[in-house]
Amino acid sequence: MDSSILRRNELRHLPKAILWDLDGTIIDSTECHFESWSQALKSHGYTITREIFDAHYGRNTQSVLPLYLGFEPDPELFEKINIEKEEIFRDEVVKKGAMVPGVESWMRSANQLGIKQAIASSSGMKNITTMLSAFGLLGYFDLLVSGANLPAKPEPDVFLEAAKLIELSPAECLVIEDSSAGVQAAKEAGMTCIAVLTSHTKSQLTAADLLVDDFRTPLLDAIGNLA
């Protein structure tokens, strides 16, 4: 057992659940998303700059596609681009994605401590299950929540939905995020938030309660730094 588990009684307050973002937080998939958006848009005669992609990374497709196109697409165009993008992404992330260093050790520690774990991601459910299955992580989670059809982060809906389904109050949940929109959503939900510096800079994530470079610091040490 992780030696940090032996020190659990030193902490007065553990979260009852960890609500994990997925892309950029658990799986380093940012480049896979950019590449899949670039290819899908190009096949329909459109382009995307890195600047506009970075500015809106972490939000769901319903909210970002009009921003990437510069106009509101009709339902047929939306569906065609969305389907192409997601198919390309699932292929790319299995081949080129990677777990953020140390992330599985946090999941393992949370399980050992009896902390529930849920995915609360803007991605569609097929993307969520594809990534977790490809990296052998599906078994860590009590619940998977997709925000694809909910108001996009920075709205708090996906986190509030996860808390409701896992039957806990927002105050009992710890969110782990990588994007500024995700951090804002967590704070709007009334939750504590740890942000990992995989896709955004420290200056973009100042609203988080704690910043970590990756997950190689033990989970209990990070939680202790929140107290």
Describe the structure.
With 227 residues, the chain is α/β, with parallel strands linked by helices. It folds into 2 domains: 3-28 and 99-224, 3-Layer(aba) Sandwich (Rossmann fold), CATH 3.40.50; 30-96, DNA polymerase, domain 1. The chain has helices spanning 30-42, 50-56, 61-69, 75-96, 103-113, 125-134, 157-165, 180-188, 219-224, and strands at residues 17-20, 27-28, 98-99, 116-121, 143-146, 173-177, 192-196, 210-212. Strand 6 (173-177), helix 8 (180-188) and strand 7 (192-196) form a beta-alpha-beta unit. The radius of gyration is 17 Å and the shape is globular. It starts with 16 loop residues before the first strand and ends with a helix. The mean pLDDT is 92.
The CATH topology of the largest domain is Rossmann fold
What class, by secondary structure content? alpha/beta
CATH superfamily of the largest domain: HAD superfamily/HAD-like
CATH architecture of the largest domain: 3-Layer(aba) Sandwich
What characteristic shape results from the CA principal axes? globular
Number of strands: 8
Protein topology:
Layout: E1 17-20, E2 27-28, H1 30-42, H2 50-56, H3 61-69, H4 75-96, E3 98-99, H5 103-113, E4 116-121, H6 125-134, E5 143-146, H7 157-165, E6 173-177, H8 180-188, E7 192-196, E8 210-212, H9 219-224
Parallel strand pairs: 1-4, 1-6, 4-5, 6-7, 7-8
Antiparallel strand pairs: 2-3
Please outline what is shown here.
Helix content is 42%, strand content 14%. The protein has 227 residues and is of the alpha/beta class. It folds into 2 domains: 3-28 and 99-224, Rossmann fold (3-Layer(aba) Sandwich); 30-96, Putative phosphatase, domain 2 (DNA polymerase, domain 1, Orthogonal Bundle).
